[in-house]
Design goal:
The protein is mainly α and about 500 residues long. The chain has two domains: about 450 residues, no CATH class; about 70 residues, no CATH class. The protein has 21 helices and no strands. Helix 2 runs parallel beside helix 3, helix 3 runs parallel beside helix 6 and helix 16 runs parallel beside helix 18. The longest helix is centred in the middle third of the chain and has 36 residues.
């Protein structure tokens, strides 16, 4: 079981890694061309608005209800196709309707998401006009995400993982070839081009599996499995709204320029892109792969395997995410400088973005852990418990961010989010234990201490090397990465961390 999950996670993680590499190239170009300018902040707000609804009606719907329901029929391909056809039919109608509503009321969405823009007419008007265009992306990505939920049910993970590559390629091409001519507007049209490409790639991947589009709205609305999905989605909808209100806390507070200064919203974006790198490669890949099996074990009432898989998954999250968190904690300025420090991304941009990354690093492991816990509840067909937990975490986030923003500026916003994530994770952990009974965590506690010890040694050594060497920043980061990798492998071997030992066995066998 674990070998197949590791294989599928590696496959999906490889696709996600490819996507994130292109995503970094995209962000480097955005930083170089637009820095933390007002135009870029207007685009970020305009893109954030459809993305809020995207993670409710697209990935939110597909991850929480569509994938678990479809995956429970993984041995019946015809059943998956039939449910999938009705699902796409219903969602096409509702996504188109909501997209039109978004275009009409774009002005009010901008006021809600970035109230600080109201006093800055240029940014406000630009954000409204951009939003009216980017809302079309919601329709495109909503269908794409639910195409991928059908692919997950077939246990096809690579195409969904690489789909964002096409969005990033459109950004890269648009900026390089048209950035100087059209300025920040090129980002808006790149979004639409990328959405079309993602939709076509996912559809043709399904087409090869024998899937065909059939539109009969009346029949689709009467499908018992579609009704089941939307009933489950009621709880998920509240959870999603709570989650995105939490995300909006960062945007709302960082738009208050008179408190946090210019460019704060852009700094949140750049730091978030780095935080999202391990989150996407590790936890999104892993959680979507294990979701299929967790849902199946729940249906088969095999809770022992459910718990084994949960523990196995969390140990892998610890191994991959904790070292990255410590590197972000010890070297935020160096990492930001190497990746974004050029062109319009000046010293001011560097300082505020490094502050945000530093404070986000405290919550990275818990952001990832929350996703795994939430998906475990979804596999149990429970969408209400994560919603309640997220609601309490939202209150914590608002209070802490509102307090910390004054002494720490935009860094306080990031720290408030991190502390709220820690609270949310432990609350979900407690509630999951109450729901499924005792979970065999003893080995995980010892494992955590080992990985934390190794990560601290790795992070401290990297910081010392960075301070000592006075070479070009690219040479410095290469030296830090190389020495850090060796330390991690040797330390992991002596601490008997199983993933490192597996790597050593593979390496020695290969030789």
């Amino acid at each position: 079981m674990f070998k197949q999950i590791a294989k599928n996670t590696t496959l999906m993680g490889s696709g996600t890694l490819l996507s994130r590499i292109f995503g970094f190239i995209r962000d480097v170009l955005i930083a170089s061309f637009f820095g933390t300018s007002a135009g870029l902040e207007a685009f970020l707000v305009a893109f954030r608005i459809p993305n809020i609804f995207r993670t409710i009606f697209a990935e939110g719907f597909s991850d929480s209800v569509a994938t678990p329901v479809l995956s429970s029929y993984r041995k019946d391909k015809e059943k998956i196709i039939g449910i999938g056809q009705d699902l796409i039919c219903v969602l096409s109608f509702f996504l188109l309707l909501f997209t039109l509503i978004g275009i009409i009321f774009a002005k009010y969405f901008v006021i809600l998401v970035a109230p600080g823009f109201i006093t800055q007419s240029y940014k406000f008007n630009l954000a409204v006009s951009f939003s009216q265009i980017t809302f079309f992306y919601l329709f495109l990505i909503g269908l794409t995400s639910n195409f991928t939920s059908i692919l997950y049910a077939y246990k096809k993970f690579f195409i969904p993982a690489i789909s964002p590559v096409f969005l990033n390629l459109c950004f890269i091409g648009g900026i390089l070839f048209f950035g100087r001519a059209f300025g920040v507007k090129v980002l808006v049209f790149s979004v639409l081009a990328g959405g079309v490409c993602q939709l076509l790639v996912s559809f043709f991947a399904l087409y090869r599996q024998g899937f065909r589009l059939k539109f009969n709205l009346i029949k689709a609305l009467g499908n018992s499995q579609i009704i089941k999905m939307f009933k489950l989605f009621v709880g998920r909808l509240f959870s999603s709204l709570i989650y995105h209100l939490s995300v909006l806390v960062d945007t709302i507070f960082s738009s208050l320029t008179f408190i946090v200064g210019q460019g704060a919203l852009a700094s949140i974006y750049y730091a978030n892109r780095l935080i999202q790198f391990p989150f996407a490669i590790v936890i999104l890949s892993l959680s979507r792969v294990v979701m299929v099996d967790l849902s199946f074990y729940h249906k088969e009432k095999d809770m022992n395997k459910f718990k084994e898989l949960l523990v196995f998954s969390f140990q892998n999250v610890i191994f991959f995410v904790l070292p990255i968190s410590l590197i972000f904690l010890f070297l935020p300025r160096g990492i930001i400088n190497v990746i974004f420090g050029r062109g319009e991304f000046d010293l001011y941009s560097l300082n505020i973005t490094a502050s945000v990354l530093f404070f986000y690093s405290f919550g990275l492991l818990f952001f990832c852990g929350i996703k795994l816990m939430v998906n475990s509840f979804y596999a149990l067909a429970d969408t209400k418990t994560p919603a309640k937990s997220a609601g309490l975490a939202l209150l914590v986030n608002v209070v802490l961010s509102g307090i910390l923003i004054f002494p720490l500026g935009v860094g306080g916003v990031a720290l408030g989010s991190s502390l709220a994530a820690i609270f949310n994770f432990f609350l979900l952990f407690h509630l999951l234990k109450e729901k499924i009974g005792a979970i065999p965590w003893q080995d995980t506690k010892i494992y955590f201490v080992k990985v934390l010890t190794l990560s601290l040694i790795h992070g401290l050594t990297s910081w010392v090397i960075w301070q000592i060497f006075s070479y070009n920043k690219y040479i410095k980061i290469a030296v830090v990465a190389g020495i850090g990798f060796v330390i991690f492998l040797l330390g992991g071997y002596f601490l008997k961390i199983k993933q490192v030992n597996l790597f050593w066995r593979w390496l020695l066998k290969k030789k």
